[in-house]
Amino acid sequence: MASENQITKAMFDSEIRLYLAKSESLELIERAYQYSEEKHNHQKRNSGEPYFIHPLNVAYTLATLRVGPKTLCAGLLHDCIEDCGITINDLENDFDQEIATLVEAVSKIKNLKFDDEKEYLASNHRKIFIAMAKDIRVILIKLVDRLHNMRTLEYQEPEKRIKTATETLEVYAPIAHRLGISEIKNELEDLSFFYLERDKYDEIKHLVEKKKSERQESNNRMISEISELLQEQKIQFKIFGRSKHFYSIYRKMTQKGKRFEEILDLQAIRILTKTELSCYEILGYIHAKYTVIPGRLKDYIAMPKVNMYQSLHTTIIGEDGEVYEIQIRTEEMDAIAEQGVAAHWRYKEGRRYNAAKEQKEIEERLSWFKDMSLMTEDIDDDAKEFMGVLKRDLFEANIYVMTPKGRVIDLPNGATPIDFAYRIHTDVGHKTSGAIVNGTMVPLNTALKTGDIVQIKTNNNSVGPSEDWLKIVKSSHARNKIRSFFQKKEMERKSEYVPKGEQLLKEELAKHKLDEATYFDKEKLEKIYSNFSLTNYQDLMYALATKSLSAQAVVEKLYNKKNIFAISRIFNPAKKVKTKNSKSAIKVAGIASMKSMLANCCNPVYGDEIVGYITKGAGVKVHRNDCPNIIKEKQRLIAVYWDDLADEKQRYETRIIVYSSDRSYLLSDLVNVVSQCQAGLVEVNSKVNDDSLTAITTMTVTVENSEHLRNVLANLRKVNSVTEVARLAS
Ligand code: MN
To answer: Which residues line ion ligand 1, judged by CB < 5 Å?
Structure first.
């Protein structure tokens, strides 16, 4: 696979002279050439060739992309820092700051270590790459550097070949694609394909060559037919055949499940012309002469692809019955199709290069295309994928920082050295005592930036993280680790209360003359803690020990008989409860002595708006005005009133429903509120939904009147994690 034609100085010189003429530029490049050749003098490549071959090849390819003189110099010098003991300062003194910065950025990317984190996604690598490079020129140098390394990959160890080829396919080729540099993208893909899937590569290569020789004659005939047609019309054009590269055929076969024979655009005939208008003219003449396959005309001139690709595509049937794909575009469009952003921002002498301005233009241009494609209905998959990647990469707020050894750590925007420390290791996080960023000691709440080199100082005597860190950290990873540290500490604290809780429970059992051996059963206790919205045995004992849960309630659960001790007395032991079954405080309109009862469904309490329902033989049932059971009733309703002189001690039973998220001590908190409000508690029932982590609690309470009830409801609403409190309608 290695490129046979060796690049020589003469070839390089003549290539740069195709677009550079200023003597100061040529002198600068010559100086970088001599400098690099001398510094790499003693090094050899794995192939045995002088090392300098490599930077020379890189610079030569950069020249074919028409980059500026400084980028060419950086290409020639790109491996100096790493391999020849040259420093950034040396380059700054020997050349200038711009060249030194470019070389530094290229070297920095080289030091990124992607391989030690298997779970790392290729898309992350691309992001890191883009974020680190910042400057389009650095990306170009890196792509071209990789291209030459891939061309000479055969001299590497087999293991290294696989690693490099995988990285090229997953990181470098997509970046080249994104920037529209399909020349480089295609070659990178085919080289990776060759090393990663040798059998498939050979198979497709064989099929393509067979097809090519089968089609050679008909293709040539078609090319000369079209040439004649266009010559008659006096249109300037260039025409030639173009094969799809192997990897894109393979991808189409595997991703779209197509057979080799089904791929129509294996070989395309490409026509280049001068103007956009000529493109449409040529299309018109071709369509007038040949049968067109419907649905395959693509106008990427009017609707450019997001990576700036422009061309007309059509598929026709020749007079020989064969299918031909035709691509028509201007020479400028062709250059952009092959070289993408590199073509668009080609170096022109006399124009001052402004890195920031150019970078901004590139981003604007790319996002402008993104908006364009959003407006069209017809976005092909490629464009969609491209858009997604672009959006993620350019707009996602992530930063990439490094360990002193070059391992990349990605963190959310605004992340601090603490976030970094927890990503290194939980123990490092817990013991963090200070941070050094780019060689300088910084406060722990410093916001890190992409490219920062971060070193964490730890203190082995540290007792753990500070609770203030929760306010500083930006990553959920660090936050969770800090939280669980404190949770664990809390658990340890609670465990000290277990003996006390156990003792209280045993005392309570003794009080009711219940046998400890039977009832103090850990297995049973393990089963009942969820009844109190607790999550484990320890929490249960802690709740008992701190009196947030009464031992009596637990004993009752253990004894497993409802109301055995009349639950309400547990909370309001002094109050004797009178409920609706005692004498009614209702007056029925017009009928002094009418027998009345409070309805069971809506459980009205004194002060509620009420209405009577005349039953057959059981007097008047009193419902709340809004009770769904009587809302449709028209005939048998009768007005009823609360008796102002009613017994003040009378209590009314009603049901409440509480919606909340699930948490420890929820139930005991709710019960405490009812108790503090001087309401009686008859029954509590709680259901936890494990999927949504929510709880629905129904409580039957006794209250004096509607105002008292409102007070209970209002206080329940204040309980932490409660989302809604309501009376049960029926
Ligand atoms: Mn290199």
So the answer is: 79, 145
CB 567 within 8 A of CB 681: yes
Q: Ligand 1 centre and the CA of 82: distance in Å? A: 9
Residues of 94-104 as b/e, b for ≥16 C-beta within 10 angstroms? ebeebbbbbbb
The 10 Å Cβ neighbour count of residue 652 is 23
- Using left for φ > 0, alpha for ψ between -120 and 50, and beta otherwise, residue 678 falls in left
CA of 111 to the centre of ligand 1 (A): 12
Distance 662 CA to ligand 1 centre (A): 58
DSSP letter for each residue of 190-209: HHHHHHH-HHHHHHHHHHHH
Q: What one-character-per-residue DSSP string does 458-506 give?
A: E-TT-----TTHHHH---HHHHHHHHHHHHHHHHHHHHTTHHHHHHHHH
281 is catalytic: no
CA of 380 to the centre of ligand 1 (A): 36
Dihedral sign, CA of 710, 716, 721, 724? negative
- Give me the domains of the chain, ranges plus CATH numbers: 4-196 (1.10.3210.10), 200-344 (3.30.460.10), 366-493 (3.10.20.30), 496-559 (no CATH), 652-727 (3.30.70.260)
- Ligand 1 centroid vs 184 CA: distance in angstroms? 16
Q: How much is the pTM? A: 0.54
C-alpha 662/C-alpha 693 separation (Å) is 5
Express each pLDDT in 376-388 by its tens digit.
Answer: 333 344 444 444 4
Residues in the chain: 730
CA 587 to chain centre: 66
Rounded Cα–Cα distance for residues 486 and 474 (Å): 18
626 is catalytic: no
pLDDT digits (tens, 9 = 90+) for 20-79: 888 999 999 999 999 999 999 888 888 888 999 999 999 999 999 888 899 999 999 999
